[in-house]
Amino acid sequence: MTHASETEFRDWVMRDRQALRTTAYMLCSDWHLSDDLVQEALSRLFAAWPRVRAGGDPGAYARRVVVNLYLDHRRRPWRREEPTAVPPEPDPLEDAHPADGVRADVIAALADVPPGQRAVLVLRFWEDLSVEQTARVLNTSEGNVKSQSSRGLAALRSALLARGLTDLHTDLTEPT
Question: In terms of residue numbers, what domain contains 169?
Fold first, then answer.
């Protein structure tokens, strides 16, 4: 890799790393795991930077790698660490929006949604990707994205109800 390419990669990382980290957190609800996922994704992105840069959208490639790493991690339970009841540091999302308790409730309920459905929900509604873009990131059909969105929202509604959050349950609408 040339010095100019390496500089371009560093600039891209400085600009987009936090958004990638937040996406990873929305998938796994664990800041440490999200850091690991992002670091692994950035390592893979660095190795493929000239090809990815030529493709025009390194962010889409990086998101796809993060989602694939997360789903791979979920398939291998023997690699997971046991979470603790109390996180060792404050939640940066809560710090950014201290008055927004709804955000924490939705994130907690999102952790109860199956991983594949959660990936679709995060990409569609957090990353605001279209059905087509989400299908490309997940390497699946648009119909699968739509059905996983519907099932994921139903699972999220159930998780919100189980937590006694009936107001949030009624606010969720079906995707179009």
Answer: 90-176
